[in-house]
Write a structure and sequence with these properties.
This protein has 508 residues and is of the alpha+beta class. The chain is built from 16 helices and 23 strands. The longest helix is centred in the N-terminal third of the chain and has 21 residues. The structure holds fe (ii) ion (FE2) (2 copies). One fe (ii) ion (FE2) binds next to loops.
């Protein structure tokens, strides 16, 4: 150890926040953020303020797991009311944007009857003018597409309301983030730092390169009180070194959920990074410490909060050479561009892959494979499975792909041949569509429709059909949300009698 220099402890939790809510992918693009603000956050806050006891009871009820209930006990009404008032005061632009999306939808329903849409541009709400194109599908259903790169430059995108909360994590128990804002309990350092800031990179470099306390203080511009607290997050103890894989062929390691690190002597690929911190706990696991110094490719399969996690991505940002994301559909409200969103958050090395497009590297290639279903039949294109050819190995990471059209894998087999190892998610019940996309709807969806359109992956028959079609030698069921340290983005608790467990046991 050098004198007077410190590392960042391996259990320093960094929670990225937007308006003091945990930042997941729909809270970054202005339009989805606006809808979530009015239709999720403000509603949950109002409901908690009115009846905190009901929230406390609902959180204790396993049948309501993942529902719109705050996991805060019943004594935080004052703080929640203050957050609501702050949100109403600071987020006028977003609240207005959300109302404008409603008005635009209503206007198109009323007036888009198959005749030219040109005259309707004058009726587009003021703050959406110049940011939308009005369209019909071939059956005269009117809709609009957002011109996202322009919208990010508008007043609706305000990264001064992004912040970071630092604390030490010592156990797996974290509240479910879609329903509970992160209130400061006096245990954390809360800094108004936008996600694109290089300050984050400088800080997390200290996981491996020690620096002085003055450096930390200046980099983060800490107040005396914050500096005192931050001091506890540093250690003079060096982390354990990470030996790169130097063996023959390839090694793949499971970090939990859909996160797998694949390494050869020449290349490292990290799938859907969601990582655990290092702390003493009953279940052994790979953590942030078990990653190489640089990661050649990070692959993101789709835009669900358990597959793209800013908390992890921001901490790894300077170590990632390339991020590969599925190509974007072009402006549908429910399908924001991952490339733009990541760029906005300081990632300048994002590559989009279209279906069956490939990136070649030394003795291997990454191919984007079509990913069907699991999005409630919404027109969402930002989703992809990945085929990895590494030396003589062929692996397919299917994530939550739902095999609703088995013929597709027959066509794919003709192009990629047999697969050695298939990784497939089998969360085959899935939440109703509204669980993630509800805030984006401007009209009520009837309950039976919502219940029928699920965010469900493959069941036994569907997964088995992929195994057979691709002649897979090995199959791994993953991405089941079973890791207790990921409950904060997952909220799934299975028993042996749960259908996804029965189905996946059958497959194995
Ligand atoms: Fe998913
Ligand atoms: Fe998933």
């Amino acid at each position: 150890m050098k004198n007077g220099v410190y590392y960042l402890k391996s259990n320093v939790l960094m929670e990225p926040l937007v308006d003091d809510w945990y930042a997941w992918a729909h809270l970054i693009p202005p339009a989805t953020a606006a809808r979530n603000l009015t239709e999720r956050h403000l509603r949950i806050m109002d409901s908690y303020i009115e009846s905190p006891e009901a929230h406390q009871a609902a959180v204790a009820n396993p049948a309501l797991l993942g529902g719109p209930f705050m996991d805060l006990g019943r004594n935080r009404v004052k703080e929640v009311a203050a957050l609501r008032d702050r949100t109403l005061r600071d987020r006028k632009e977003l609240i207005e944007l959300s109302r404008s999306i409603e008005r635009l939808d209503a206007m198109l329903r009323e007036k888009g009857k198959g005749y030219s849409l040109e005259s309707l541009y004058a009726e587009v709400p003021e703050n959406l003018q110049g940011y939308v194109e009005l369209t019909y599908d071939l059956n005269n259903h009117p809709s609009f597409r957002l011109i996202e790169p322009l919208l990010y430059q508008s007043r609706a995108y305000d990264d001064s309301l992004q912040s970071l909360m630092f604390s030490e994590v010592t156990g797996d128990d974290r509240p479910f983030v879609l329903s509970t804002p992160r209130l400061d309990k006096g245990d954390a350092v809360h800094l108004q730092i936008p996600f694109a800031s290089a300050q984050i990179d400088q800080l997390f470099a200290m996981k491996r390169q020690p620096a002085s306390f003055d450096f930390v203080r200046e980099t983060l511009d800490l107040s005396d009180e914050d500096a005192r607290r931050f001091r506890c997050l540093l250690t003079s103890e060096a982390p354990r070194p990470y030996p790169r894989y130097e063996g023959e062929g390839a090694r793949w390691r499971y970090f939990g959920h859909a996160c797998i690190l694949l390494e050869t002597r020449n290349v490292s690929v990290l799938m859907d990074p969601v990582l655990s911190y290092t702390y003493e706990n009953g279940i052994s696991r790979y953590t942030y410490e078990d990653l190489p110094e640089t990661i050649d490719y990070v692959l993101i399969t789709h835009n669900h909060q358990d597959h793209i996690l800013f908390e992890t991505l921001l901490q790894l940002r300077p170590r990632i050479r390339n991020i590969v994301v599925p190509r974007n559909g072009g402006g549908a409200l429910q399908d924001p561009s991952l490339k733009l969103l990541l760029k906005q958050c300081g990632f300048h090395n994002v590559t989009e892959l279209s279906e069956m497009e490939e990136i070649a590297f030394d003795r291997g290639a990454i191919t984007a494979i079509p990913f069907l279903g699991e999005h409630g039949d919404l027109d969402v294109l930002t989703k992809s499975a990945y085929h990895l050819r590494v030396g003589k190995h062929a692996l397919l990471f299917a994530a939550d792909s739902c095999n609703i059209a088995p013929k597709m894998y027959q066509h794919i087999h003709g192009l990629i041949g047999d697969v050695d190892a298939l990784f497939v998610g089998m969360e085959c019940d899935g939440a109703p569509m509204s669980w993630i996309y509800g805030p984006l709807l401007t009209q009520r969806l009837e309950r039976p429709m919502d219940q029928s359109r699920r965010l469900a992956g493959s069941n036994y028959e569907r997964a088995m059909a992929i195994v057979n079609q691709l002649n897979c030698k090995e199959v791994y069921v993953y991405a089941m949300g079973q890791e207790p340290w990921l409950n904060y983005v997952m909220s799934i608790k299975y028993t042996e009698k749960s259908n996804p467990i029965i189905q996946s046991d059958r497959l194995i």
